[in-house]
Fold:
Amino acid sequence: MRGNMKYNFDTQINRRGTGSLKWDVGEQELPMWVADMDFRTAPQIIEAIQERVSHGVFGYSIIPDGWYDAYISWWERRHHFTMQKDWLIFCTGVVPAISSIVRKLTTPAEKVLIQTPVYNIFFNSILNNGRQVLESPLVYEEGEYHIDFVRLERDLADPQTSLMILCNPHNPVGKIWDRETLGRIGELCHKHHVVVVSDEIHCDLTDPGFEYVPFASVSEICRENSVTCIAPTKAFNMAGLQTAAVSVPNELLRHKIWRGLNTDEVAEPNAFAVTAAVAAFTRGEEWLEELREYLAENKKITAEFVKKELPQLHRVPSSATYLLWLDCGALEDKTCPGADPGAAGENPSLNGTKDGAKIADLASRIRGKTGLYLSAGAQFGGNGEHFLRLNIACPRAVLLDGLERLKRGIDG
Structure:
């Protein structure tokens, strides 16, 4: 890491009492669960919002050309993919967009394919809209994940499968899908008439030296059979401002998505959504580069700590996101059965196995004993029942505190 960083990510900011979802916890508890960073966003974004606030009038907003230009320039410069203005549609968030797309492109009881373990809210977007979740699990071998393409094709070939939600880069396993893999996914989905929705919200949170590949950039097939959900909110820590976009190159798909987003009333910006996004993409790049370095150092510290102090855990190698996936399988024989299934998260129905209950209980007992609040992995599906998810996007002193609590919780 550079010794003369311009931005200070070591500053600890008290978020208690601010209406924060993450920090709505007990006084002695330390939340390291939800994907929300404990850093102030880039000062350039704060300045832009303050300037907008000083105007004092917060009426209805339009989407100006500058918003389109900011997205197009950012993806062209950083991700080597040129989007066209017509492809882009504003929406209030990636999750509202995915839920709207599920409603618009599928019918009740049809299947939506997801590659588990994966972002748990995908389950909500599918089940809450009366569709079926089709888990096509990733293969976990020698401590890493990959795709079983034979299984994937069989699942895509199911005549009830009409949509696939791709996580690129993948949360929670931190994997960047390479161009060849994305191309194979695109070919199979096209072959079996399954539309791809690619959630790329973590794309700017790759480790230094690593780049993600936009799904739509891989081939004409991928481009014409996909909807891409993007936003500056994860990388710049401003999810509460509710600003995102979908990119839809195919004209017919785009019309359907546009109708769906407008019908669901999630296609209009609040008074700060455009201002913040434009500032992030036009003025926040230097801040983001230093953030990525800081997060990479946090990952390194965590990896060394786990290796030395918690060798019974396995940290799945990660090249994207600030969410670390910890394999706790070796602990399962030492944890207590009979846990409360609800302790594992928002999808307790996924905790049907004995081992899943054990790891859910482990997360609960770590929190009860040390105050450290982690995400139990069962809510992410697949083999997540054997894992804990750790958010390391926090000042260094907070991270070290969290790691020591983790050690006390595991040793206990």
About this structure: Residues 335-354 have pLDDT under 50 and may be disordered. The first strand starts at residue 30 and ends at 31.
